[in-house]
Amino acid sequence: MGDVSGNAPLVVVGESLTDLAERYGLPWAPSAPGSGLVLQRAEHGLEIAGDPKRYGHPIRADFVSGAAAHRRRFGGGRGQLVAKACGFGKGVVPRIVDATAGLGRDAFVLASLGAEVLMVERVAAIHALLESALSQAEADEEVVEIAGRLSLRHADSATALAEAVRDWPHAPQVVHLDPMFPHREKSALVKKEMRVFRELAGDDDDAPRLLEAALDVATHRVVVKRPRKAPPIEGPPPHHVIEGKTSRYDLYVHRSLKG
Fold it and tell me: Strands of 174-177's sheet, edge to edge?
């Protein structure tokens, strides 16, 4: 499966989370250490927290409230860029693997539009956040149906995507990728939430290998989210590009999606 434990030091804190630390192979402490990042239980489930000046507010995955609820109600449905890129159309609801799931925001949008979605996340602490959020969503009457279309795997998609999708009971028609764009020292200061991701996961220097794995697994297309002015991932050129104001989707198409 490859190294899926993350790159930066992170400690699981709380007496009740020793089993979780053991399951993911992460260090555990009874209370929060003085510095660095910690995975802890809060009022609304698991969260990753650190020095607010460096990392901002704690981060968590949330499929029930906040931005997820707002986007579910007012996000634009199938008119959203990610939906267009993934091939939603008249009579077409694709089966999608989100191979770089992160906090699951795009995966939840796609599932809310009716798609079966498999989330694959390589960083142990982020996977734990997703697992916590999914459990909460399954217990909420407003989103339980959507949660039922979400599945989750802990794996590194660059090295084990085929293994991750093997026992998913759906053909992976579309693979969605949102690789971390390599950091440049001269660029503007990275947003604090992104800083947490960079310290846990590093830059996706293996993006070409990730694209190759996705192309091998997807039966119909691979969809890659990029900053609007960024170059495509090294490898075969995209067949189509869908541009938004700040980002774009590069589409690598094997065959057309049909209803």
Answer: 150-154, 117-121, 96-98, 174-177, 221-227, 247-253, 240-243
Amino acid code (one letter) for 129 = L
The span from the CA of 161 to the CA of 1, in Å, is 9
Give the sign of the dihedral formed by CA 55, CA 123, CA 252, CA 174.
negative
| pLDDT given for residue 90 in this prediction | 87
**Any idea what the Cα angle at residue 253 is, between residues 247 and 257, rounded to 5°?**
100
- 60-253: what fold? Rossmann fold (3.40.50)
Q: Tell me whether strands 240-243 and 247-253 are parallel, antiparallel or unpaired.
A: antiparallel
Provide the 10 A C-beta neighbour count for residue 55: 18
10-residue mean pLDDT series, the chain (259 residues): 52 94 92 83 92 89 83 74 94 96 95 97 96 96 96 96 96 94 50 82 81 98 94 95 94 92
Whole-structure pTM value: 0.90
| Residue 148 tokens, joined | 């039922």
